[in-house]
Amino acid sequence: MCSDFTNGLPFMKMHGLGNDFVVLDARARSWAVTPALAKGIGHRQFGVGFDQLAVISKGTGDAHLTFYNADGSLSAACGNATRCIARHLMDESGATRLHLTTARGDLAAVDAGKGLTSVNMGHPQLAWDEIPLAREMDTLALPIDGAPTATGMGNPHCTFFVDDVAVVALEAFGAEMEHHPLFPERTNVQVAQIIGPDHIRMRVWERGVGITLASGSSSCATAVAAARRGLTGRSVCIDLDGGSLQIDWREDGVWMTGPTMHVASGVLTPAFLASLT
Predict the structure, then answer these.
(1) Are 101 and 61 in contact, with CB atoms under 8 Å apart?
(2) CB 89 within 8 A of CB 111
(3) What letter does residue 27 receive in the DSSP assignment?
(4) % helix, strand, coil for the chain, step of 5
(5) CA atoms of 193 and 175, how far apart (whole Å)
(6) How far is C-alpha 135 from the chain's CA centre?
(7) Cα 36–103–108 angle (5° rounding)?
(8) What distance in Å separates the CA atoms of residue 43 and residue 138, rounded to the nearest whole number?
(9) pLDDT digit string (tens) for 215-243?
(10) What's the distance, Cα to Cα, between the start and end of the chain in Å?
């Protein structure tokens, strides 16, 4: 795998509200990402470290995006990484609107002004077999303590509404719920506190990653779940550990708006890549 990278492998480090990513640009030259490569880059001591790895490749639109979790598994959606890459591509091309393709489907991205980037994450998946769940049931209130709501945003989500997110032992709770038998593909886990009709405080455990400072798809899922339960309207500000996102559930999909940051660019050395074989 790594013998092709005699000059190393260029990468970019980006984050959206502290939800951090390593981004590889494969538009000029294609190569395979293996679980070993993804896990190696993702290790925060022996690699670069990330919540997700994102790969940019050529597609039917402006670019195709592929996402990997820190454990090397694939993820169909990653909202904050999509916004970060959209901002990079806009800065690169001068465009203010992009058509991106992902395993989740076609996504539109627009320059929202004042350094903010918006992405339409598509329509939420609300049926049990779309999320998916292990068997047919009401996705609004699952038969789990706390009666969480299940939502699909290209990846599965389980949202618990609580009185105070600060008192939840999320590391233990998230690890347990990620592997709940009702979720055959595992699940992202959110604990959400309603601050007002247009304001939510949320913490998140990401499938295949752990606790993260922010999550775009989790924010979309939580906003949809809150609106479905009549706890908020369809436009909300969500405060995460790393900052705030604006989520709007519109007729054409769930739009997410927030800041991005391109932290650094570098090169993974041939020696490091060879160590991953």
Answers:
(1) yes
(2) no
(3) S
(4) 20, 40, 40
(5) 20
(6) 25
(7) 125
(8) 38
(9) 999 999 999 999 999 999 999 999 999 99
(10) 7
**What span, in angstroms and rounded, lies between the C-alpha atoms of 160 and 167?**
13
- Span 94-126, pLDDT tens digits: 999 999 999 989 999 999 999 999 999 999 999
Q: Please, which residues bridge with residue 212 across strands?
A: 204
Report the b/e string of 134-173 with b at 16+ CB within 10 A. eeeeebeebeeeeebbbbbbbbbbbbbbbeebeebebeeb
What single-letter amino acid sits at 44?
R
DSSP per residue, 123-156 = PPB-STTTTT-SS---TTS-SSTT--EEEESSSE
Which residue do the tokens 């927030």 mark?
Answer: 258
The Cα–Cα gap between 273 and 113 comes to 39
pTM above the 0.70 mark?
A: yes
Torsion 93-28-262-7 (CA) sign: negative
Dihedral sign for Cα atoms in the order 155, 156, 161, 162: negative
